[in-house]
Every structure is written in structure tokens, then in C-alpha cells.
Amino acid sequence: MVTRTARERQLDHPGRGEIALADVLHALADPVRLRVVRTMAAADSPMACGAFGLPVSKSTCTHHFRVLREAGIIRQHYRGTAVLNDLRRDDLDARFPGLLDCVLAAAAGDSPAQ
Amino acid sequence: MVTRTARERQLDHPGRGEIALADVLHALADPVRLRVVRTMAAADSPMACGAFGLPVSKSTCTHHFRVLREAGIIRQHYRGTAVLNDLRRDDLDARFPGLLDCVLAAAAGDSPAQ
DNA sequence: GTCGTTGTACGATAGACGTCGAACTTCGGT
DNA sequence: ACCGAAGTTCGACGTCTATCGTACAACGAC
């Protein structure tokens, strides 16, 4: 007999030390993904992919969240049929101190109305 | 009769207020361009394109410098046959405070041997 | 003027990227 | 068992991008 948590579908995440700057910058350079990150930074709890109201199809949505996950910017785990998304603030701050906050502040200045 | 400075070939640069975050992030997400920016940040005076010793052809070089210029990251002006490149530190800091320094610090942490 | 240096302009090309729709999987609820 | 909700997978598509080589232009030096 197996516990529920051990049977959860698995998603690959880079370790904290494996997060690469070029990947992070590339991931944040897309308007849709930057919007996701801004929304997540403003939220107080993990959000499902569908909760962002993105102006793209479901498959494109999947694509963007995978890019963010593989860049090490977000953590994803299954919760029933949904996928909960979480900003990897600690890891990002440890690897590239201040970078996330700078980008968020810059984004706020660049287009205040998210 | 026209003065020399007025006859210089002109390059288009975005105004300080026109610098867009997505363009900046996209420009910095390329290894060759990030290396250029790091080298320029470490230099104390403007450098010609050829002085960076980039591992790409001349035409590719021209391409990368144009991307950086159009993103508002560098300023370019002709000096004889050469083009001098200069980091737009002031404009970048004014538009996106701290961003450039964060990225430079992150790059130093990501690959210390430039 | 001629020549070498420095960079630009112009295709061309191969690969990456953002986007979609249709079919499928997984899970919770009834 | 069935159905609907939430994502994923799998092509397919057009566009953007990084790269190159060749030909060309601007300038300094001789």
C-alpha cells in the first residue's frame, strides 16, 4: 500500500544551484510570463494555472508555465486535477540576490496597470 | 560648409522614457550580449566593437550591438572608422533602478570567469 | 589617390519560439 | 460508472533569431 503523496505525478525542477541567469532572463522577457510572475508575487498563496486569466489557449499556458518551472522561477505540484504554482523566492534570492525584486519593481514602473 | 560633428553618420537610440523592460531583458538573455555588457561595465572608457574579442563573425557582431542599442542598453557613435560603445548607466538606473547592477552581480555569480 | 581597417547591408539558413486545436489523461463529484 | 474540470501531449504553423559569407561604404594613413 502506497501513501497518496508518494504517488503524486512528478515535475522536474532545477536545484537551487542549477538555476541559470540566461534562462531566468529569457523566461522573464516574455510579457505573458512576466505577468504571471507579477501576479504570483502579489498573491499570498499558490495559484492554479487557470486562475491567472491569461489571454492564451490552455496548451500555450502549459508551455509558459513549463518555461518558468524549468528556469527555476516557479515551483509546481499537483493538487487534485489542478497544478499549484509557487514563486521560488528563497531560491532566487539566494542565487541572484535582489534580482527578482528589481525586475518586479521595473515591471511596476514599466506598466503600472499590470 | 558643415562641421564634422553635424555630418557624422547617425544611429537611432530610444529615449530614456522609451526603454522597455521586455527589450532589456531579452537583450541581456543572450550570452554574447551579456558578455559585452559585463565587459563594458568593467571598462572605464568606451570600446570599439572589435575590441571585445567576441567569438562570432563581424556581421553577427553588428547584429548584437544593434540589439543592445535598440533596447537602450548602450549608446553608439562613430569615431573615424570605428564605432564606440558606451553603457547607458544613467538612463538605465533612472528607468529601472538597480536592475543593471543586479544583473551584473548575478552574472558574476553565475559565471565568475567572464 | 590607394590601401588597410572597421564596420554595415543584404541575402540565406537552420533552429528556437509563441501560438493554436484536437485528442488524451487524471482526478473529484455525483 | 459517468461526466466535467484542469492540464498535458502532440503535431502544425508562422515568425523571430543567431549565425554566416560576400559585397559594400566610410574613414585614416601613406
TrEMBL record, chains A, B:
InterPro entries found in the cross-reference section: ArsR-like_HTH, HTH_ArsR_DNA-bd_dom, WH-like_DNA-bd_sf, WH_DNA-bd_sf
PROSITE patterns in the record, alphabetically? Answer: HTH_ARSR_2
Gene3D superfamilies linked to this entry: Winged helix-like DNA-binding domain superfamily/Winged helix DNA-binding domain
Q: Name one GO molecular function term.
A: DNA-binding transcription factor activity
Q: Where is the HTH arsR-type domain?
A: 13-107
> What protein name is recorded for this chain?
Transcriptional regulator
Highest classification ranks of the organism: Bacteria, Bacillati, Actinomycetota, Actinomycetes, Streptosporangiales
